[in-house]
């Protein structure tokens, strides 16, 4: 910075856009003349260099570690930040230039290789283990009991009864058989049939209660909530951007979000002292840390009711979150897939849709994820919903739905099922009652073993504190206990570390895939392991 | 923004501009010696003006993304904060906490532009904007036809859809089967005891492996063998099922190539590849032109040329994506061609993805032999061979969304299995298909009848075109006539072709796919999908085409 360009022949006019465009035009033309003249060789090589440099800078901009805080409208002093930043830009550009690989044997893409690696997260290890030796009361009484998969089998009888009675009609459409086969076997819109969207909107308002209404035209249907989240992520964030996500969170997000999109997750730690409630302070802290690391934060991903804890975000928290998102100009994805699986009696569930309809917020940044895997316990059907208020995102998501569209027979089936309001009402009611009953049984059972659960109101699981049972108060201790539960106790639970919980000793136990009469057995097995741990100490 | 004219202060605004700060100074260091080197007047001038201009562009870019502090508008604050007072329904304490957050957020909010829209990722904007409207005639035609579809009685003046690859000729067979067996297939054996039924519903609605049920893989393997007349047998454990062939291709592209790498694809090719291969994976497609003189057969020479050209452009080629039978032309790759493609792939050390979607829909002469890539597996290193398949065409169930990846590369299979979580096949559909495809008698009958009907319709349609003087490329399989209408186009160019396409769509009310959508390098070729037509519709379509033809001739 010792020398500055001394003569400034054309000080740019205050209107930046117009001025720059004007300058650009005037510059480019004389440049040719000069390039052909004396300075041609040097300029001809230096100008592209400069351009390349700025291109690098532009590319690496997200990584530049020191950015002025958002609140300050004063520019940072150049002297403070220039030297080290300069070095950084130079190094990165060099590595970019050398970044070409060498020719090798037939190879896959590096991203393909990364995905192909087996996942060693205890979440998936446990699931696989159970798949190899699943418990069955009669056939395999020594098998492993699955408490690691959030699945609800409590109301299968209802679904089954309905299917028996209505399957043929729903697929074939009674008399209009011709029409129906045409609407099933042939190509359908990738983003879901309008009829199903209407039925889904109705189902969602029933589940979320209080007359929140959903507009079918703001909906995109996909083959499960998993692709729904991936596609939303893809639409909101570029490679290398980040999302804030309160911990503990659903272990699958690590795959859903990071696998193909290249988006990073910044954990926002919640603690047992607050019953794992999200605070805006923690959010803000995580946001600033991410910025310091040079990551561009594009959104917050919340689960409500939260998974794995099962607590519900209050109206106030939701409002604060919206404020925060608005202030930072980022998106909010609200995963409300457990909205209908509530068992709490005191707390009410408030959908993000309700808040956003009721008050003046910039709706374009709010997106809701829903699915039928939990609330209608049809995970095998693979039906997920993106509900967004942002037209651009909807347009892109509709196009991307070609990669994960729902099978037409399934859509036909669901249209009839969801339109059968009597059945749906009965189902929602019964399902809640049965979940509550299982919750009381299960949490009561754990309580008798001296294991406390976090306070929760929804979901298919409880979040149990077994830190008294772990030998070491660390992730290692937790995983030892998890291993013992799995291999000795023959019970597969999800350890907190898989959910990125920062406090060791917490476990997610999903109780809705259990038969009521198996609960004592589960308690017995957990009790046995607990005894072992206590005597071992 | 206003810059001070004094030289001393010039540096300040200059470096403010690049929000990231430092990079700008580095740039200065690079550019300043430029002044010393370039002694002429132009040097001094440019040495100062060029960086300035560059900073301006950078600044513009930053500004657009970071919102101008000065543009902030206080209007947003009351709007955003006032209603919240009402919401603080949970007592004073909360309202106070609330208040605290509100003030702090207001401070931070003020420098923000209220108009600052939530960010949509660059890649999504590209997808949201890309063809669908007027840009690609393929999608424009599909949309037009779906808005005003032909119906013999209901809408006799509607547009007849010949642009969508779909087979309606044998839908009655599928329907018949479904009426008989659907309930049983999904809910389980009717009339059995309750326990069995419970098990069955359990298998339908609970979590299933994302890459497809083993039973379905077995059934699909045998169906594929059936379609290939048992020349190949498939190992279900090398198979991954996806929600349609579209994600199958995407997953393969994703796993085989990194963003910025390329695939060689012989043209004309299926227009959807431009989305499937490129959109999310960032992989590029290098067209390998095939010509009508060779009946659009792929030659290794052009493959090699395309490969070298791509290399010159600095692109890394990761594979060849072939279709066999080819789509849209519909010819089969000869054994010799398949072998030489494999040799080429081995030579260049790249992958081969063979899209054999139409194998069961071949309707041509029996003496031509279909050679699946899976057949040659013993003779080459199989790690590089991948087969994509689907049930959309051969059993005419595109609505069911079932695709297949068949590969001999364990890493690819493992990656694909992990990725199917994003495009799994629905449970009820899987059970339906297990039952349907395991019904050997039905499948045999279906494949036979389907081929017959395809042949009959193809003969009727292509024959009709021939009478009009439109020749079709020699074709052995698939749902298409690849018709040469180059004599009718007013100018021998893409423009002329699109004019004719437009005329066919608007005057003739027939939606077809112009060759340019398939990246055909010779203008005047059109893809007609005849498999959606009923026997009675064929004369109607031919009449409409004739109408357009005559108007073309009278003009010229």
TrEMBL record, chain A:
Keyword RNA-binding set for record:
no
SUPFAM superfamilies, A to Z:
PLP-dependent transferases (SSF53383)
Q: Quote the protein name from its UniProt record.
A: 1-aminocyclopropane-1-carboxylate synthase
Q: Where is the composition biased (Low complexity)?
A: 69-84
Q: Does the keyword S-adenosyl-L-methionine apply?
A: yes
According to its UniProt record, the EC number is: 4.4.1.14
Report the pathway entry. Answer: Alkene biosynthesis; ethylene biosynthesis via S-adenosyl-L-methionine; ethylene from S-adenosyl-L-methionine: step 1/2
Q: Which family does it belong to?
A: Belongs to the class-I pyridoxal-phosphate-dependent aminotransferase family.
Which keywords label this protein?
Ethylene biosynthesis, Fruit ripening, Pyridoxal phosphate, S-adenosyl-L-methionine
Summarize the subunit comment: Homodimer.
Task: Recall the GO molecular function terms of this protein's record.
Answer: 1-aminocyclopropane-1-carboxylate synthase activity; aromatic-amino-acid transaminase activity; L-aspartate:2-oxoglutarate aminotransferase activity; pyridoxal phosphate binding
Residue numbers spanned by region Disordered: 1-20, 64-103
Q: Which domain of life is it from?
A: Eukaryota
Cited InterPro entries = Aminotransferase_I/II_large, Ethylene_sulfur-biosynth, NHTrfase_class1_PyrdxlP-BS, PyrdxlP-dep_Trfase, PyrdxlP-dep_Trfase_major, PyrdxlP-dep_Trfase_small
GO terms in the biological process aspect are: ethylene biosynthetic process; fruit ripening
Q: Which Pfam families match?
A: Aminotran_1_2 (PF00155)
Species for this entry:
Linum trigynum
Q: What is the lineage of its organism?
A: Eukaryota, Viridiplantae, Streptophyta, Embryophyta, Tracheophyta
Catalytic activity as recorded in UniProt: S-adenosyl-L-methionine = 1-aminocyclopropane-1-carboxylate + S-methyl-5'-thioadenosine + H(+)
Q: Which residues form the Aminotransferase class I/classII large domain?
A: 145-526
From TrEMBL, chain B:
The record's listing under Pfam families reads: Aminotran_1_2
Biological processes, Gene Ontology terms: ethylene biosynthetic process; fruit ripening
Report the catalytic activity: S-adenosyl-L-methionine = 1-aminocyclopropane-1-carboxylate + S-methyl-5'-thioadenosine + H(+)
UniProt biased composition (Basic and acidic residues):
1-11, 67-87
CDD domains per UniProt? AAT_like (cd00609)
Family matches, as Gene3D superfamilies: Aspartate Aminotransferase, domain 1 (3.90.1150.10), Type I PLP-dependent aspartate aminotransferase-like (Major domain) (3.40.640.10)
Q: Which InterPro entries match?
A: Aminotransferase_I/II_large (IPR004839), Ethylene_sulfur-biosynth (IPR050478), NHTrfase_class1_PyrdxlP-BS (IPR004838), PyrdxlP-dep_Trfase (IPR015424), PyrdxlP-dep_Trfase_major (IPR015421), PyrdxlP-dep_Trfase_small (IPR015422)
Q: Where is the Aminotransferase class I/classII large domain?
A: 160-545
Stretches the record annotates as Disordered: 1-23, 67-93
Q: In which pathway does it act?
A: Alkene biosynthesis; ethylene biosynthesis via S-adenosyl-L-methionine; ethylene from S-adenosyl-L-methionine: step 1/2
Keywords from UniProt, A to Z, are: Ethylene biosynthesis, Fruit ripening, Pyridoxal phosphate, S-adenosyl-L-methionine
Q: Does the keyword S-adenosyl-L-methionine apply?
A: yes
Q: Which GO terms describe its molecular function?
A: 1-aminocyclopropane-1-carboxylate synthase activity; aromatic-amino-acid transaminase activity; L-aspartate:2-oxoglutarate aminotransferase activity; pyridoxal phosphate binding
Q: What class of enzyme is it?
A: lyase
Which PROSITE patterns does UniProt cross-reference here? AA_TRANSFER_CLASS_1
- PANTHER family xrefs: AMINOTRANSFERASE ACS10-RELATED, BIFUNCTIONAL ASPARTATE AMINOTRANSFERASE AND GLUTAMATE/ASPARTATE-PREPHENATE AMINOTRANSFERASE-RELATED
Q: How does it assemble?
A: Homodimer.
Tell me the protein family, please.
Answer: Belongs to the class-I pyridoxal-phosphate-dependent aminotransferase family.
Protein name, UniProt field: 1-aminocyclopropane-1-carboxylate synthase
> Which organism does this sequence originate in?
Linum trigynum
